[in-house]
Write a structure and sequence with these properties.
320 residues, alpha/beta, 12 helices, 8 strands
């Protein structure tokens, strides 16, 4: 294992999942959180997603011998499906519980969190100013060896490279939601990223059971969100333009395509705060009366009511 200490800056939906996959694969994992209230919000997410991972691992035993097992097993949790036995999964379950207990630490002191870090993954909201502020705080605290990555969904690493204090050791590493089953990791450098560092990030993605997807140049939205964001924006536009309500839009998509989830169900998973931040970066988001402006207003209304998505128990839908 080339990377021993992994630090996650931020305890949101994806930050939590990244940290859990890091611990799952045997890495000493530290979450840096801004305040005690951040710990209060993050701890339930750690419990929620660790329980889901354990449940999916347990459920994989029922797939053994099933012809569809090779398509349905949790790819990030079981590296090789062929030949996997129930006994092996039981051993993995026991090891996972031990690792989740012993390898995860929550830290408020930034200097302590970054001390001796091999790789730091910034997993904050899509707010450029907040990211720059965070990088400025971190740059003199990280050891020389540390590689810094951003999990930004849409922002280019070249936008922030000069603020990191280590542009050659900085790149993007973007994950899909539910990373223990949707185990993709998009690796995207900027023109100043050291090729050797880029290769090491690819190796780290493999270490935590992801499939590294290598981008050859910078692209806003990478591969996945270059396709996903326009899709979700189109659905929000239909809603904001009062063409149809979210439930009907979702039903239309599911029935017509056979997809398991509609766009507003996906938005609840992504989180409405992230959706709002992405929307507000569009040029006409501040022009009152435009469709983009109206989309932002509607999202903000839900956010202000605490309806931020599945982790809050309510977004476009309610969750028990």
């Amino acid at each position: 294992m080339n990377f021993k200490k992994v630090v996650i800056v931020g305890g949101g939906v994806l930050g939590t999942q990244i940290g859990l996959m890091s611990a799952y694969t045997g890495h000493d994992t530290t979450f840096w959180l801004r305040s005690e209230s951040s710990i209060t919000r993050t701890q339930p997410k750690i419990e929620q997603y660790s329980s889901k991972m354990l449940a999916d691992l347990e459920g994989a035993k029922k797939l053994i011998g099933n012809p569809m097992g090779g398509f349905l097993y949790p790819r990030g949790l079981i590296r090789t499906w062929e030949g996997t036995t129930a006994e092996q999964i039981d051993e993995q379950l026991a090891q996972t519980k031990e690792r989740f207990t012993n390898l995860i630490r929550l830290e408020l002191d930034l200097a302590k969190a970054l001390d001796d870090a091999d790789i730091v993954i910034e997993a904050m909201a899509e707010n450029p100013d907040a990211k720059i502020e965070m990088y400025e705080k971190m740059k003199d605290l990280m050891p020389e060896k540390t590689i810094l990555c951003t999990n930004s969904s849409t922002l280019l690493p070249s936008t922030f490279a000069e603020h990191t204090g280590r542009p050659a050791k900085y790149c993007a590493l973007h994950f899909a939601n539910n990373i223990w089953t949707n185990n993709t990791a998009e690796v995207m450098g900027h023109p100043g990223t050291d090729p050797e560092v880029y290769d090491r990030v690819v190796a780290f993605a493999d270490e935590i059971n992801m499939v590294p997807l290598q981008l050859h140049k910078e692209q806003p939205g990478y591969i996945l969100n270059s396709m996903l964001v326009p899709f979700l924006s189109a659905a929000q536009g239909l809603w904001a333009n009062e063409v149809a309500d979210p439930a009907t839009i979702d039903l239309t998509w599911r029935l017509a395509t056979g997809a398991p989830k509609g766009p507003f169900e996906i938005l609840d998973i992504v989180g409405l705060v992230t959706a709002y931040n992405i929307n507000q970066m569009k040029p006409d988001a501040q022009k009152e009366g435009t469709l983009t402006w109206k989309m932002g207003q509607l999202l903000k209304e839900k956010i202000d009511k605490g309806e931020t998505g599945i982790t809050a128990g309510k977004g476009f839908y309610e969750y028990k």
